[in-house]
Amino acid sequence: MENLQTQGIALPRLGLGTFRLQGDACRAAVESALTLGYRHLDTAEMYGNEAAIGAAIAASRVPRNDLHVTTKVWNENLAPDAIRRAFDASLKKLGLDQVDLYLVHWPASNMNLPAMFETLLKLKQEGRTRAIGVANFNIALLKTVVEDIKAPIACNQVEYHVMLDQTKLRQYLTAKSIPLVAYCPLAQGRVAFDETLTAIGRKHDASAAQVALKWLLDQDGVVAIPKASRAESQKANLDALKLRLDDDDRKAIAALPKDKRCVNPGFGPAWD
Length: 272
Ligand SMILES: NC(=O)c1ccc[n+]([C@@H]2O[C@H](COP(=O)([O-])OP(=O)(O)OC[C@H]3O[C@@H](n4cnc5c(N)ncnc54)[C@H](OP(=O)(O)O)[C@@H]3O)[C@@H](O)[C@H]2O)c1
Prior knowledge:
The mean pLDDT is 96. Helix 2 (50-59) runs parallel beside helix 3 (80-94). The strands form 2 sheets. An 8-stranded parallel sheet has the order 3-4-5-6-7-8-9-10. The chain is α/β, with parallel strands linked by helices. It is built from 10 helices and 10 strands. Helix content is 40%, strand content 15%. Bound molecules: NADP nicotinamide-adenine-dinucleotide phosphate (NAP). NADP nicotinamide-adenine-dinucleotide phosphate is lined by residues 17-19, 42, 105-106, 135-136, 157, 183-189, 192, 207, 209, 225-230, 233, 236-237, 263.
């Protein structure tokens, strides 16, 4: 699996999303994914599944150094002492000494960005997370974090898929060499029913979902974290990496409506 190098970590370009996976079903899905070759797991304190993911990691034979684990602090816990408590709880549930990437999950209207990043950087300096980053940050917030605070963020995790334009945000992130981790890369499963993608897939003996994933992964600086609970879908998503889209395919995908947002961070200034 190809990795993106960012702020000292190697981020596998395809990861497993785990939102809405819980308990034994979550553990089974993560065990299946690790067996199939996934080496990047995406979780969050808010998902309530870190213990199940920790159990799956413990049961697997994957060496810790070969595995990338991202977790996130929820936006009610962005005061320095609350970040520390949330972080400790996440590590304990995951059964790990260290995570690879710790993200601010969602901006809060009352957050104190310098204090937040001072705390996150301390966690990095202490070696308890290998890197830090953000999710759902718009360009205005990114500018503060990157240009004023100069925090070494390893990614911005945002919604991105064939049906949502992220050109402006991508331009900013590319200029700063910050990867975009695409969440809802399958538009929460909607891409599977799109006729254009289905037709492209037919041409390549692939599914619409595989076409949507490969379109993302053909872009520099983009990582995708599709959630799939079933082994067949997990394998299909890995196999999407082998697909070769051509210019006609890209043209047809470019013509799809690009305003289909599944998740609205709905914070502060205009999103982009
Ligand atoms: N930072 C944030 O604020 C944020 C927000 C949203 C999501 N995320 C992260 O991003 C991950 C992905 O987003 P998401 O789960 O919302 O949506 P998604 O990955 O776009 O879509 C998941 C849906 O697609 C289905 N699916 C998976 N592989 C498929 C395939 N090959 N063919 C057809 N259908 C397929 C899944 O089915 P099954 O359920 O049956 O497997 C599920 O219904 C989350 O799990 C989470 O880790 C982060």
